[in-house]
Amino acid sequence: MKSTFKGQPDFRFSDFLLSFWCGTAGWFTVLSLGLLISGFFVGESGQSTVAVRRFLLLLPCGCCLSVARLIRLSDLRPALRILLHYFITLLSLFLFLWLPTRNAAFSRSVVFLLIVTVLYTVIRLIFHFILSAIKKRKNG
Fold first, then answer.
1. What is the pTM of this model?
2. Measured at the alpha carbon of residue 86, what is the angle toward residues 80 and 89, in degrees to the nearest 5?
């Protein structure tokens, strides 16, 4: 199977699955720790437990974020890669992390989407500037 990933001429389906599941496991770990730590500090009156349903929704969220990462690494046009990565990231955070909190009032949802969009843009710009500085230093 021909590669759809940059710099990898012979990318097999098993490599794709390995990359997908490793990314999912990584995201699940990061999201789980974030949820547990936030539950510890924000928990009501000393109660530091997290609902099992919210915890289990971290796995499909991690899967979506892993797919978004694989799309970002693909050979698609750069603008399409960034748009797909953004929409999949936004959709997964909204569906699996925001909606289950029962804070789904329209105004709160719009604020959440705006905050995620601003954070995404800032993080992408920081990475862009860091990578372009590294590339300039290598070439120049």
1. 0.71
2. 135
- CA pair distance 7, 82, nearest whole angstrom: 18
Per-domain residue ranges of the chain: 13-104
Q: Which amino acid is at 76?
A: L
Task: Give 97's contacts (C-beta < 8 A, 6+ positions apart).
Answer: 31, 57, 58, 61
Q: In this predicted model, what pLDDT tens digit does every residue of 22-75 receive, in sequence order?
A: 999 999 999 899 888 877 777 655 555 667 778 888 999 999 999 999 998 888
**Closest among 12, 26, 97 to 66, alpha carbons compared:** 26
3-state secondary structure of 76: coil
List all residues 6 or more positions away from 29 whose beta carbon is below 8 Å from its beta carbon: none
